[in-house]
């Protein structure tokens, strides 16, 4: 084949009108991206006509970024976020990044061993280092997004090929209250709400979905997640205490969205740890009728819909969080909750697809 029919990454980028980084991300994200004819010392090369036809037929899809939020701990937020991320990657064959913004690090140690997490945290390869770099602009930054992402994570089959993790750290507990002061600490050009968005720019296009496990607060760390979110989900136990803060979440997210000039829709409320008792049945009915608490008092703020799939209480989920357990299937990991979590994953995908159209 004539060499003038060969193109490298730079030429592919010119054909598509994008950056070389975008082309690299396409190669990672799309299985149907043409395979290179050769891998030269200078890099991969493709047949010009083949890659040109791919570019012409390519219809880029946005990366769906879903934040999982509740102001109360222990409601199954992390379990739900992790399960959705795992099932999107394994069953739906999507490229998924789970970002753990919660300093409790539950999502992190659910997907990788504590030993691996400790090693990454020591090396500055967690979300805490990203914020710490911004808090100390006088020091050379240590955070590198490519090195901080753990590949092929999960307790399923020793890891899921399409699932990556940006881990959290308990060090974030000491940092989170100082983050709003970044602009006053000598780093005047740094916007505290743009830190995560800026760090993800080189890699975001390689993922179909980004799932964010937010801390149980509406502070700056959560708003970093919301800043890049295309929607959010509220997992909650259907009882009085767990649902009490939902109005506050919806109200605060709506005001934050107005401040940044971009919609952040609530995809819905997920009833978790559901038990067969009168209280749960009554609260679920209120959620289904969209008359929960302050939402039913005639205000202008609508209650997010209750998603169809409700997650039952099951002891299998606790076992599934053990990274040392020999778990080979989702049913083995999530037990009786599997069908509901599988249905929830499909339900969220459908909502994202409808929103995209």
Which short descriptors sum up this protein?
6-stranded parallel β-sheet, 17 helices, alpha/beta, 3-stranded antiparallel β-sheet, 41% helix, 2 domains, Multidrug-efflux Transporter Regulator, Chain: A, Domain 2, 357 residues, globular, Rossmann fold, 9 strands
Instruction: Based on the coordinates given, report the CATH architecture of the largest domain.
Output: 3-Layer(aba) Sandwich
Structural class: alpha/beta
Can you count the helices?
17
What Rg, in angstroms, do the CA atoms define? 21 Å
Q: Any idea what the shape is? A: globular
Q: pLDDT below 50 for ≥5 consecutive residues: which ranges?
A: none
The level of helicity is 40-55%
CATH first level of the largest domain: Alpha Beta
Give the strand content: 5-15%
- CATH evolutionary superfamily of the largest domain: P-loop containing nucleotide triphosphate hydrolases
- Determine the mean pLDDT: 89
SSE order in H/E notation? EHHEEHEHEHHHHEHHEHEHHEHHHH
CATH topology of the largest domain: Rossmann fold
- The total tally of domains equals 2
């Amino acid at each position: 084949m004539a060499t003038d029919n060969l193109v490298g990454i730079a030429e592919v980028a010119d054909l598509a009108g994008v950056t070389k980084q975008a082309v690299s991300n396409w190669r990672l994200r799309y299985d149907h991206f043409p395979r290179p004819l050769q891998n030269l010392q200078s890099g991969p090369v493709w047949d010009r006509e083949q890659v040109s036809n791919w570019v012409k037929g390519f219809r880029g899809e946005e990366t769906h970024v879903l934040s999982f939020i509740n102001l109360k701990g222990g409601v199954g937020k992390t379990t739900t976020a992790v399960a959705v991320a795992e099932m999107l990657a394994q069953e739906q064959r999507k490229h998924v990044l789970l970002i753990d913004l919660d300093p409790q690090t539950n999502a992190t140690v659910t997907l990788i061993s504590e030993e691996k997490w400790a090693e990454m945290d020591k090396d500055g390869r967690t979300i805490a280092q990203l914020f710490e770099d911004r808090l100390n602009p006088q020091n050379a930054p240590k955070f590198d997004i490519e090195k901080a992402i753990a590949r092929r994570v999960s307790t399923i089959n020793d890891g899921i090929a399409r699932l990556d993790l940006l881990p959290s750290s308990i060090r974030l507990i000491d940092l989170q209250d100082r983050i709003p002061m970044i602009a006053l600490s000598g780093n005047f050009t740094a916007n505290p709400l743009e830190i995560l968005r800026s760090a993800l720019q080189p890699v975001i296009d390689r993922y179909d979905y980004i799932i964010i496990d937010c801390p149980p607060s509406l502070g700056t760390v959560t708003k970093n997640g919301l800043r890049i979110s295309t929607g959010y989900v509220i997992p909650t136990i259907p009882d009085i205490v767990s649902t009490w803060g939902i109005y506050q979440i919806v109200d605060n997210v709506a005001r934050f969205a107005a401040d940044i000039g971009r919609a952040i829709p609530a995809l819905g409320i997920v009833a978790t740890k559901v038990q067969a008792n009168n209280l749960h049945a009554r609260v679920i009915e209120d959620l289904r009728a969209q008359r929960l608490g302050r939402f039913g008092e005639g205000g202008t703020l609508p209650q997010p819909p209750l998603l169809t799939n409700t997650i039952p209480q099951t002891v299998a989920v606790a076992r599934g969080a053990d990274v040392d357990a020999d778990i080979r299937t989702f049913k083995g990991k999530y037990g009786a909750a599997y069908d509901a979590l599988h249905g929830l994953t499909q339900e969220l995908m459908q909502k994202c697809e409808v929103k995209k159209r």
